[in-house]
Structures
1.
Amino acid sequence: MTGTVQVRIFGTVISTYTRICQIACEEGGLAHEVIPTAARSPANRHPFGKVPVVELDGLELIESVAIVRYIDNAHNAGGLQPVDAAGLAVMDKWIAIANNYLFPLFEHGLVMPWVMHRVAGFPLDGEAINRALPGIGRALGFLEGELAVDGAWTKVGFTLADVFLYPVLRGLELTPQGAAGIAQCDRLVAWLETCRQRPSIIATRWESEP
Ligand SMILES: N[C@@H](CCC(=O)N[C@@H](CS)C(=O)NCC(=O)O)C(=O)O
């Protein structure tokens, strides 16, 4: 989204959580920019050393759940959230699964070993990958089974659940073993492809994506 910058996102440029906030900005029609900030740098204001930290509407926000909910409520009339309590609970369940289980599993098991290898030139940590693969396989099987129920994470189409799940799954898909695992899950592949047509996903594409 171009125009006068309304949202400043302090975070690493290729980051799952930076992208989650960027997608929410795009969905809300907010012009945003990323100010490259390393998690463990003195410039990072997050009290627990995470990125991103976000400035908008005179607020300084941390924690992506709080950030994207604020953006969606204040700037998108809550358009990415179910209106009923049961629907909200389902959406929140998927956000929690993405944050608490999928992201750590994928990040430590495949994404970071490949980043350290491809970007920093370290030997590939095959042991970490081999340890993580069974759990990653089980997680993908679980997701595939859940998508089989009605083809989406919630009953109301694209929500904040998708905003979290897409970058988490896409990061995994950019590793060789992650791509191979996802390729065996037809419904996950179809969901990723549907997301890829969405303007907010296109606009926030990582430079490293093929
Ligand atoms: N709970 C945080 C998590 C953010 C997070 O884990 N960010 C990653 C980058 S995608 C990070 O800061 N990693 C650096 C580290 O853990 O040292 C949020 O929801 O914003």
Note: The chain has a mean pLDDT of 96.
2.
Amino acid sequence: MAQRPTPNNKERVLNEHDFIVSKTDTKGIIKYGNQIFIEMSGYSESELIGANHNIIRHPDMPRCIFKFLWDTLAAKQEVFAFVKNLSKDGSYYWVFANITPSFDSNGAVVGYFSVRRKPKSASIKVITELYARLLAEEQRVEAGQASRRKEAMAASVALLTEFLHSKKLSYEEYILSL
Ligand SMILES: Cc1cc2nc3c(=O)[nH]c(=O)nc-3n(C[C@H](O)[C@H](O)[C@H](O)COP(=O)(O)O)c2cc1C
């Protein structure tokens, strides 16, 4: 894709009663986005349709969260996640996302559907700290070498697993408790 926007630390806030909706194919290529998605992302509809959903990936997001997301979807289950997104102008916006697989009449997954709303600010505070720890672990292990990405991912998954273990909660229980 074209060059990524440079994050500028300006926040966009989703309105209390608004929902961002998007649909993708099985690879995460955007097939549909509602008007709020278009507005919050800062991209036009034609820029979004056909793009990989990582078009709004923010560099503050740890990779292990997306790994967990895709592993859960691959198991045909829905997933909840707090996601910091990057708009076209470099600003960011937080969402609380629910992503579900869509099935055809034979039960095969034909794509994914996501609805997001504004998270509570108390949840964002907690998640920001957790994600910063996970990202730091990924960066520590990767140490600037793309060849170490797998190890970096394993290390942050281990850190997340340990964190959830200490809380005696599953990932979903923890996320829904925030
Ligand atoms: C339906 C659906 C919605 C998604 N929504 C987002 C999103 O809002 N922000 C985001 O960064 N990734 C989202 N993803 C995950 C992206 O596909 C991608 O895995 C992620 O941005 C990490 O990109 P990368 O693997 O290129 O680093 C979504 C995936 C699906 C299937």
Note: Strands lie at 20-24, 30-33, 79-86, 92-103, 109-117.
3.
Amino acid sequence: MRKVVMLSALLVSFGFSAETLKGTPEEKAVMGYCLQCHSYDYIKTNAPLTQKGWEGVVKKMVNVFKAPIPEDAQKQIIEYLTKYYGKKE
Ligand code: HEC
């Protein structure tokens, strides 16, 4: 019985995330590429940035720190970070 309740709670929370990027390729790109050198805290505790700001961070990770991230994944990452840790221009 308890299991059934937990399962439906889980389903409800998934329902609410239809409009988010959780569990999408964008999120997977962040989780897969950005946590190779440091923890997620680096992203979480960074001040909110504009899209250009996040683009700058991702380019810095790639160009300065040599993060091996393909172009299309970089775009997905920037989109994700702008959505969750972004601020208006
Ligand atoms: C190749 C290793 C590497 C990868 C992969 C990497 N980073 Fe970093 N990141 C670093 C280093 C090194 C620093 C600087 C650490 C320090 O200053 O103590 C850093 C620092 C940061 C910071 C702190 C602010 C700043 O600009 O220094 C943020 C935010 C950040 N990374 C985000 C990301 C994101 C987003 C990704 C995925 C696109 C990513 N990192 C992938 C190496 C990496």
Note: The longest helix spans residues 2-16.
